[in-house]
Amino acid sequence: MFRPPFLARVAAGAAVYALEETRRLPTAAMNFPITAISQMLQTTMHVQQFVTSLALKGDAVFERLSNSPVEQPEWATFDEDLGDEQSSGDDFATAGRTSRFDLYTAEESTASSTNGHVAPVQTITVPEITDPEPVAEPASDETVPVEDEPAEIAEPEVATRYDYANMTLAQLRARLRMLTVEDLTALLDYEQRTLARAPFVTMLTNRIATVRAQ
């Protein structure tokens, strides 16, 4: 197989590369702003990191040259430091102020207030409180009269025959034509003396008037 010289192959490859880059040029042109901005941000961050590292190294150099202890500012105090200082100061002040009067106890003060004598204690007896006995009310001579119970009303024979006590108004209307004037009068009198139901009284009264008018 014939193989072209090296320069010919390089030229052919360059032509193919140029053609491919030309085809990808629109896409690369669209992505170029975004790529440029990202590259610029990355470069800026790297530069800032590099400058910061240099500043830290410079601080280390100056600290070695000066060798002076760092003074703690006045406002940088903690509760533990204040607690230790106050406790040491209080102990010193208490030790300096201690005298024989501070050893005066409560027992000595109690004994001196009573002059060595014990004060007598008086006991107070509280009388017991008892409930007063109830006063019996005098019996009343007046007696409450007892009402006499009404005498039982005798049920007439016609009421017993037709079971008038359990009869409805419709049942009474159906049986009116079979009753005589004496039966109607007896039922009316019995109704008025017992239940006195207005519909029953009216129906019996009208039927009696009708029968008598015939």
How far is it from the N-terminal to the C-terminal residue, by CA? 155 Å
Class derived from helix and strand content: mainly alpha
Low-confidence stretches: none
Largest sheet: none
Q: Give the helix proportion (percent range).
A: 55-70%
**Fraction in beta strands:** under 5%
Descriptive account of the structure:
The protein has 214 residues and is mainly α. Helix content is 60%, strand content 0%. It contains eight helices and no strands. The model has no long low-confidence stretch (mean pLDDT 75).
Q: How is this structure best summarized?
A:
This protein is mainly α. It has helices at residues 6-23, 25-66, 79-97, 106-113, 157-161, 169-175, 181-193, 198-213.
What features would you highlight for this structure?
8 helices; mainly alpha; elongated; 214 residues
Fold topology:
Blueprint: H1 6-23, H2 25-66, H3 79-97, H4 106-113, H5 157-161, H6 169-175, H7 181-193, H8 198-213
